Amino acid sequence: MKELVTIKAIARQLGVSPSTVSRALQDHPRISLHTREAVHALARQLNYFPSTTARNLKSGKTGIIAVVLPEIRENFFSEIINGIEELAFDRGYTVALYQSHDKVEREERIFTGLASQRVDGILVSVAKETQRFGHIQAVIDRQIPVVLLDRIPPGIAAHRVGCDMERGAYEATKWLAGRGYKRIALLNGPIALVASEDRYRGYVKALLEENLPVENALIKRVDLTTPDVIDKMTQLIQSAIRPDAVLAFNDYVALDAMRACRAQHLRINVDIGFVSFANLPLTTYMDPPPLASVEQHPFRMGTTAVEILLATLVEDNESAEFQTIMLKPELVVSQAAMRVQEA
């Protein structure tokens, strides 16, 4: 293997001290212009690269941001990663990505490793089954900054970035009611997720304002797996008060619920209308897509989380107040789906 070029090697060739070379590489004004130019020229000639490890040891920083997400194969979380990576890269940080695969045990192991490896900060969206958060608190107690992202657990003193899901569910339900739907079902997420309760509150608030009954038989919780969604949607279809519309936890849940409807020979957005969350690109390939989908701005969520984390790294953590930023959702109506309904 080719030997790595060091500051000491450059210093030997130029007949100066290593500290002079180090300062010259940083264009320190105390080093003469002639010496700085000579050092830079030889460094380029020898293909010298500064040691990140040495620089990090000196600064006490690693230059690494850890990101812990449930599943990057889901387009929503991929968009969050895109936002995180773009801004982090521009600011000179490396992103280390970890997936919990929605398993609390795996998530806990990841955090145990991060606590010992030392990273500059952590961005996390918790697993759907996580109901205890000691592993997150443990890294906070070790003075590692944490930003809670999208799936935000309760009771943790940390920065938070998400989207106002209560408002999103409220506006989606009001929109369905405004189009004449009377029996609006809710295919909600796991009870462990705060976002599920946010959706429920917005849904109920809208129904009450529209003088529509809140029917427990029209509210189902799903574990976000395809078999469970199909099972719960089939239960709704076969119930005594079959819904004429469904508000789904996200676009993936809507897609699986639509499969259940087709299996029962029901026409999508004609016999049962669908509105969902996330507004993912996959909806453009659905035939037909949901009538509307709530845009949660995952890319902006990612960049906002990085902005907060990097600001925390240069501030006095003792005095800084924790921020909570909830992005405003946007109900995006599908024109193709609207044409299907009107036909």
From TrEMBL:
Gene3D superfamilies: 3.40.50.2300, lambda repressor-like DNA-binding domains (1.10.260.40). This is LacI family DNA-binding transcriptional regulator. It comes from Fibrella aquatilis. Pfam families: LacI, Peripla_BP_1. GO terms for molecular function: DNA-binding transcription factor activity; transcription cis-regulatory region binding. Residues 5-59 form the HTH lacI-type domain. The keyword Nuclease does not apply. Keywords: DNA-binding, Transcription, Transcription regulation. It comes from the Bacteria.
